Every structure is written in C-alpha cells, then in structure tokens.
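User: Can you recover a sequence for this backbone? Please restate the input before giving your answer.

Assistant: Of course. Working from this structure:
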C-alpha cells in the first residue's frame, strides 16, 4: 500500500453478490481489474468487457490466483468502445446469454492526443462517453428487468474544470486540446449519470440507481498516450507515494456498486466513498435532459425508448 492509501476512502461493505451478474468495461487493467477481483470475490458472475481480449485472459488468470474465495465466475467479452458496431455486437451477445444484468460498471477510458473514431466522434468523447452511453442504453431494458440494479460510471474530477459544450459536444468548432477533451468527456459522463436518474424516475422506475465518481489519482497507465513511457515510469516509481494504488483507487467504484449506505441514492457524484459536489453544469436538470436528447441524436437512435422497449432492443441490434 502507498501512503495515500491510508488517507483514502475504502468500501467497508461485506455484501455478497452470489447469483448476480456484473458487467465491467476495461476490466483487464488498473482499477477495472481490481474492481472485477473484488466483485468476483463476492460471488458475482463478472463479465469482463475489454478491447484487448488477450490482456483480459491474463487479467482473468491473475484475478483467480489472487482471489480469497474464488466464489464467483469470470467471462470475457470483446468490446471496442471506439466502434459502435463493436458496442452493439457485445451488447447483443450479452443480452442473448444473460437473463439478468444487476450491475453495470462503465470503467474503461482513454487519453488520446488527437484523432476521431470510425463513427466520426472526437476520440476521447467517442470512447469515454458515446461508446459507454450506447452500451448502457442497449443494456438498460435488461437492467431494469433485473432491478434492484445499479449503473456506475467512472468519471474524473477534471469534469469540474472543463464542462462539456452541449452546443459543440463533438468538438467540431473548438480546439481539441488533450486535457480539455478528456475533461469534457468526463463531464458528459457525470451529466449523463444524472440524466439517466431523471429519466428512470420520470418513468416510475425507482429501483435502478445511477452513480458517477472520481477514483482519485491512481497508479495506472491510462496517461501513457499523453505523457509517454518515460514520464509514466517516473510518476509511477518516484511519485508513487503521492498517488493511490489501483486497489485503493477502485474503492469508490466498489462502494457505488455494492455498499448498503448508498442503496437509496441515485444520480449523484462520489469521491472517497462519499457524495461530492459537481460542476454547476453537471448539477443542472435542464442540461441533463438536453444532453440525453443530444446523445440519442448523435448515436442515431432518436426513436429508441430504453424505458419502454421490449427486453431486447432488436430495432437497434
């Protein structure tokens, strides 16, 4: 454990997840892998939805070897969030196989210096936000049927400094600086979490809760593309005393996924296993509704109603 681990929030819940199904994106490394290990130890069936399935297989073996209980199960699914076709294919496979989805954890994320996805989205908002939004909306009817259920979205405190521009969400007219793009993608995640909460309650669905969170400064490799290997090495091994371990960084994610203390909370943002404040934009209900409509339009699913659809959204898949 690093120094920061002793001063950080830890999930204290002993809740078991036997018989429940959890989907974790980006579960092959960092806090995603630590999250998968914790929930596997609690008896859950954990679906590791990852772009690199070879690394996911290695992570699966590591999780099993580290597990204290080996009481759950681990399933690997291929998911490339930069390609909506891959998102749809992964969602379809999961829906064909799983009768219930009790917890969805959107953890995967990237930092890229430039570029766009094959669907035309700026890379970071395309992967961090739009890919996850599509994935969530496709799985949502099954999640609702599986209630009580939770949707946990990993964001960042950077959202407080770079509000998503709802009039230029894909950054067509503004500069695409790396830090700005990343912060805006994380802002969209927090606002979408609020939007889902509002839409769920609007449809009388009171037993599906949504959560967004900041994991803290964590020893992971997500910034490799931004800073390069040398700086990452220095940060990890020299500055490591001032950041959390991946296990510690996963605690707020785990807290939002399982802890009884937030059973009756929804649409909120968390740091250190407790509710925290957001940017003014991300606390706005009108902005949340606007983002929701923009998201469906950007994904070309304007006519899709995940709250009233049949259990499997065949019209999209």
């Amino acid at each position: 454990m690093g120094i920061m681990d002793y001063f950080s929030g830890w999930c204290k819940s002993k809740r078991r997840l036997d018989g429940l199904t959890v989907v974790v994106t980006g579960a092959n490394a960092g806090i995603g892998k630590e999250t998968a290990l914790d929930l596997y130890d609690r008896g859950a069936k954990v679906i590791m939805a990852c772009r690199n399935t070879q690394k996911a297989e290695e992570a699966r073996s590591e999780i099993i070897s580290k597990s204290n209980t080996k009481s759950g199960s681990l399933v690997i699914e291929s998911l490339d969030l930069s390609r909506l076709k891959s998102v749809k294919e992964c969602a379809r496979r999961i829906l064909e196989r799983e009768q219930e989805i009790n917890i969805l954890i959107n953890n995967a994320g990237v930092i890229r210096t430039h570029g766009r996805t094959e669907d035309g989205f700026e890379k970071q908002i395309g992967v961090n936000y739009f890919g996850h939004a599509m994935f969530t909306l496709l799985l949502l009817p099954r999640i609702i049927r599986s209630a009580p259920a939770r949707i946990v979205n990993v964001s960042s405190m950077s959202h407080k400094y770079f509000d998503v521009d709802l009039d230029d969400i894909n950054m067509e007219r503004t500069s695409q600086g790396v830090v700005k793009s990343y912060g805006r993608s994380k802002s969209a995640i927090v606002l979408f979490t609020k939007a889902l909460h509002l839409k769920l309650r609007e449809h009388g669905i009171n037993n599906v809760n949504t959560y967004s969170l900041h994991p803290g400064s964590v020893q992971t490799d997500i910034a490799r593309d931004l800073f390069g290997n040398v700086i990452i090495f220095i940060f990890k091994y020299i500055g490591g005393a001032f950041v959390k371990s991946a296990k510690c960084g996963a605690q707020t994610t785990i807290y939002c996924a399982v802890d009884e203390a937030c059973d009756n909370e929804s649409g909120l943002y968390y740091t250190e296993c407790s509710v925290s404040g957001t940017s003014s934009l991300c606390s706005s209900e009108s902005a949340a509704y606007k983002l929701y409509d923009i998201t469906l339009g950007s994904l070309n699913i304007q006519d899709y109603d995940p709250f009233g659809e049949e259990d499997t959204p065949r019209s999209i898949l």
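That completes the design. The CA atoms of residues 121 and 129 lie 10 Å apart.
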